[in-house]
């Protein structure tokens, strides 16, 4: 029987709108429209949940109170500067605090539904704002909803929370929030910090005192495609998760590792992203009775990529995967063309690829992805009692 699922959604989540900016909420609108047209949201066992904004107490588990006050004040002052706000990356907008708090509230609602056993899996596609720091906006992110939701569960007694981030950018804000906390494992696969914002996420970043090995970073060279990316994922993520034995898994599923994304330089397909979502679901089923909280994240090919990728994510969370050959419904194609007239609207749910399954093997290969895999395994695996050179680990 399919696991029960909570989909957290409210059109008010689209109010996180920075204007003429890459992080356009139309990508979330089109995701939910596509999932609805394909019947994903009407599956048996799916519960739609309207979230409340996160409270001050929720937000200050991660963010400083004076930073929250700055976020409230910034839209009122056209000359406001500081805290990472009113920049090209993080422009201010009316209702910024309320919109950001609502996204945090949505991820909290997803996390609590799973943690308290109301549902097995939950998803907030508007979330995944993983760059925000304790007192600074960064990378289009004002408040850090994954960190806020994880902190809420820690306060409620969680002892082993795993966070897996497959956005093209390093999940620096979540790592920073829990770098010294032995209760939280953060794993991030991302384009090399030598070539991409935020410039962190090297293999040598492995956790602070008392939490050694609980920050796991897999920096991949520009141009990495499906086969090599999935090889890196399977060479590292399952082994570390099994050693950590999480009670619950959070996944940040940014779609910007796709080859069409305009802001980065990895080369995944929608089919490769779909494979990653299914792998994370399988690991949650194996390790923590299916308890899985999924979020969106980055993704700037607003029509061509994000709606299809995250509809595959919603399908993975709610039950059976969508056949990649499935056509995109005509009403959705019409809506997408109306919302983004210059976009090329995809006609199917596939990019026409079938990502191969390749097993990592130790050795002296000159392949830069294999070197990156070995660097991460060498840095982290011994801290978990694993052999970095044994492909069985």
From TrEMBL:
Residue ranges annotated for the Histone deacetylase domain, each copy included: 21-316
Keyword Transferase: no
Coiled-coil annotated residue ranges, if any: none
Entry keywords, A to Z: Acetoin catabolism
Known pathway: Ketone degradation; acetoin degradation
Entries under SUPFAM superfamilies matching the protein: Arginase/deacetylase
Pfam families per the UniProt record, alphabetical: Hist_deacetyl
Transmembrane segments: none
The organism's place on the tree of life at top rank: Bacteria
Family of this protein: Belongs to the histone deacetylase family.
Official protein name in the record: Acetoin utilization protein AcuC
